[in-house]
Specification:
The longest helix is centred in the middle third of the chain and has 37 residues. Helix content is about 45%, strand content about 10%. By secondary structure, the protein is an alpha/beta fold.
């Protein structure tokens, strides 16, 4: 605390200055956490005291031989105490802050095991990261907790679907319509608005008409399956949030009759979850987060299931840390590209930004015309639309 942060001496300040000074002291005290080191002399009361106690329980204070004022973990492993604390932080902090504090409690204090208790799950604020943690505990989850855990996961999944489904369907449908256009349409399939715009250069003023040298319309395949999409998802621990989002998008795409969607997840083994795509919660509980990574084996499986390569988009979602045969992985991507498959590599499908990934493998894929990049869930519909139309991806 510097001198300029303190209120001016009595007689040299206005009431407004005094209030502003008190507020600065309050904020510094809440940040520094009390003890002799904060230097503010401010004593929290009422709501401030309750907020400070919640922060202190997580980020500590003075115990374990630490210097006074340096926060350390203080929640311990008591389920009732943690449950009360979860209720407190939901009372005093906004949802976004609650989610961060929950994440910190799980990471810093090793509270994952407590999430196997139903009363704990009922107290937490659900988000993507909590879902990922629950999925990692899936095999250890007792029957008494499983239904509660599924309810938590379903709440998050339904929220994600509300946020993403409509835009995804609209964007992808538009891309399919554009990709189905033909220069030789039957009369009933002519798109007259686009045809006129495409032929405005042929306007004849004396006849006040446009000569349609080039017709724009839709192919006769518009009502059938027009494209196939394969989502190939790395389920290693670092890809947890990506698995959640990929499952939601897979369910959305599978609901569209014009797209045949396949969802494949892998670590060192390969699991095809396509038959569960009608319920993304079932998909998520069919995954097994953690373990090794064999991208080569997963791509071999995906290629074996492709029947219409020129109409297929393969989306590999992985940080490219290959535990299998690296050269074979690159060759499989090259083979799919040669078959006519549109290949997209997403290093992450999450809100977190740039992930850690294998730069050498990413460069090798880029050299094949399959650039690798991270993608936020909000950008994913645009990426899919570009891939379906075989045009440059939005991030490149």
């Amino acid at each position: 605390m510097t001198e300029r942060d303190r209120p001016a001496a009595a007689g040299g300040t206005t009431a407004t200055d005094a209030v502003a000074g008190d507020e600065r002291l309050r904020r510094w005290r809440m940040v520094l956490g009390g003890g002799e080191a904060d230097g503010t002399g401010y004593a929290p009361a009422g709501r401030d005291a309750a907020m400070d106690a919640a922060l202190e329980a997580l980020y500590g204070g003075g115990g374990g031989g630490r210097p006074a004022g340096e926060r350390s973990a203080g929640l311990g492993g008591s389920a009732p105490r943690v449950a009360r604390w979860l209720g407190d932080i939901r009372t005093y902090f906004p949802t976004t802050v609650v989610q961060v504090m929950q994440r910190d409690a799980i990471d810093r204090l090793g509270l994952s095991a407590l999430l196997l208790e139903p009363e704990m799950l009922e107290a937490v604020e659900p988000d993507v990261h909590l879902v990922a943690t629950l999925l990692s505990l899936n095999k250890a989850m007792p029957d008494t907790t499983r239904e509660t855990a599924r309810a938590v996961v379903r709440k998050v999944v339904e929220e994600l679907e509300r946020r993403l489904a409509s835009r995804t369907r609209a964007t992808v449908t538009g891309a399919l319509d554009r990709s189905a256009r033909t220069a030789r349409p039957r009369h009933r399939d002519i798109d007259w608005d686009r045809t006129i715009r495409a032929n405005l250069k042929n306007y004849l003023p004396e006849h006040r008409t446009v000569v349609p040298e080039r017709l724009v319309g839709h192919g006769r395949s518009a009502r059938g399956v027009r494209k196939e999409v394969v989502l190939c998802v790395d389920q290693s621990g670092s890809m947890a949030a990506s698995v959640v989002y990929a499952s939601v998008f897979g369910a959305v795409l599978a609901s569209m009759r014009s797209i045949a969607t396949r969802l494949v997840v892998f670590d060192t083994a390969v699991v095809d979850l396509t038959d569960r795509l009608d319920d993304p919660v079932d998909v998520l509980f069919g995954t097994q987060l953690g373990g090794g990574t064999d991208i080569n084996r997963a791509l071999a499986y995906c290629r074996s299931r492709i029947t219409r390569p020129a109409d297929t988009v393969v989306v590999l979602i992985s940080d490219l840390h290959e535990g299998g045969i690296r050269d074979e992985m690159i060759k499989r991507v090259a083979a799919m590209k040669a078959d006519g498959v549109e290949f997209v590599t997403l290093l992450a499908l999450s809100d977190e930004g740039a992930p850690a990934y294998d730069h050498e493998h990413a460069a090798a894929l880029a050299a094949l015309g399959a650039p690798a990049f991270a993608c936020t869930p909000d950008l994913f519909p645009e990426v899919m639309a570009a891939a379906l139309e075989k045009r440059p991806l939005p991030s490149t």
